[in-house]
Amino acid sequence: MRKFEERFFKVLMILATIIILGSLFMILVAVVKRGLPAMSWDMVTKIPSGGFYLGKEGGLLNAIVGSLYLVLGSTVLGLIIAIPVVIYINVYLPKKSFLADITRLSADVLFGIPSIVYGAFGFSLMVYFGLKTSLFGGIIAVALLITPILIRSMDEVARLVPKDLKDAALSLGATRYEIIRVVLKQISPGITTAILLSIGRAIGDAASVLFTAGYTDSIPTSLSQPVATLPLAIFFQLSSPIQEVQDRAYAAALILTLIVLALSLAARFYSSKFSKNKI
Amino acid sequence: MIFGTHTKYRVFKDSLARRIMLGLTVFSLLLAVIVGLSLYFKSSSILHEHSLWSLLSGSSWRPFKGEFGFYPFIMGTLWVTAISIFIALPLCILTSIFLSEYAHPYIKKIVFPLIDILAGIPPVVYGVWGILVVVPFISEKLAPHFVEFSSGYSVLAGGIVLAIMIMPLIISILIEIFAAIPKELRDASLSLGATNWQTVKFVVLRKSLPGIVAAIVLAVSRAFGETIAVLMVCGNMSAVPKSVFDSGYPLPALIANNYGEMMSLPLYDSALMLAALILFVIILIFNAASRIILTRIERRFAL
């Protein structure tokens, strides 16, 4: 009886694992199967023409470039907030500090806040300041979304920097400000991983940019113009009645999936490289 | 003691940097408060007109008549969340036990990156998969056995898509919890002649119960707030779903779908911001509670 129970649950567990991995496989197959025939050189080099939602000509360049702008801007903005916070709670504050604990907790909690809430918040800010949907608004909303991820994942590595290293630098007469360079050097692979993770989240999120960044068929030339993004390119064009427009959505889904896959692999590569060289 | 000007400059730089970074840290702490307050101010005008209770329990949603009842949307959210947890939880517990207690290291080396990839797939791609695979499956294969007609765009489709989206989160937390349980406890059970599964059942699962509850609460709050994927497959009809094959209209989908016209009607934007506020408050509480439980567990076993 015990042997049977043991075996029964082991089979169940393996089945569960296979189901979960199988669903990943199914998702990838579905996206590739539908997206690959829709891919063409025009898709990645041309902006759509003939009008939003109905125009059959052209490609996705507006969304690809738009997503890049948005990700670049929001990552830079996120880092400007996240790096000082991580340095402060790991270098300036003592090991057991209430402020550090509560900062970590709040980053965890903010990480769980859905992106639609950040979108709604960004929108209410923009209404207050009288702004229209724009690249700028999108950058703010996405930066809010990724800052907690940046703080949390950089903090994980910054916590592991040995205290001795900091003490050694302090005993040589360095100020805490001067230690920052030592710590940053130690955690630089961790920073890279954090950036890759947050780019993955930023490039794939649709709900936060829906209100704030808007959508357009052209490539923005200033921060105050609306901007197209890959997730919204999928979302809007999928509901079009016209086959060619729908194809663009599937092609965008394939491109987005490939980008996210590459980012995830790169993040894993960097973090494994880091764990080998840990002191 | 007299310092040289250079030392003074260095100390000044240090204290300046400290103040700037303290400021940013406090700002990051205040962010949640700022988000909450601004959503509250935006939604206060509808709270002046109607009571919170009448809004939550009202079931008619006619913005052009000024009727804003959230009940169907709350029910839509609950249905979708319940289905997704019901599907995801057993699979995740089994998989996490397998990975942490049974699997050979090289299996972990293959499976962990794959789960990472699953975690990284954007919601909108899950939505595409839902439309391509899940919705047709429900309308053609599954629903005809139970009901006369279903378009497939249903709370079940939303639940299935959501279940897969929240799995990586649940698995990663469960594996962390299982790893925090001391090996000595397992060894003690095994040395008394218990089998591997008995050890899991009586020692590992029992010891990690609070952690599992925290993981479920986190997963629920993730499912509550998911927007785009659910919006794409749920059908979005503002009626309370009666079966899993009916379409539903969860709260986040309501916000996302109507942002375009919300400035055109009085109180409409305020109502949608109230929906965002409700989501924000519920998820904030759920998240804070489960994170506090999880850090406690980590500390208790770390000592």
Structure description:
The complex is a heterodimer of chains A (279) and B (303). In chain A, helix 3 runs antiparallel to helix 8 (176-204), helix 8 (176-204) runs antiparallel to helix 11 (243-276) and helix 10 (230-238) runs antiparallel to helix 11 (243-276). The radius of gyration of chain A is 23 Å and the shape is globular. Chain A is mainly alpha-helical. Chain A contains 11 helices and no strands. Chain B has 12 helices and 2 strands. Chain B is 77% helix and 1% strand. With 303 residues, chain B is mainly α. Chain B has a two-stranded antiparallel ribbon. The chains are: A mainly alpha (279), B mainly alpha (303). The interface between A and B is large, with 85 and 85 residues.
Please report the first level of CATH classification, the CATH class of the largest domain in chain A: Mainly Alpha
Helix content of chain A: over 70%
Q: Proportion of β residues of chain A?
A: under 5%
Largest sheet of chain B: 2 strands, antiparallel
Largest interface: A-B, 85 and 85 residues
Low-confidence stretches of chain A: none
Total number of β-strand segments of chain B? 2
Total of domains of chain B: 2
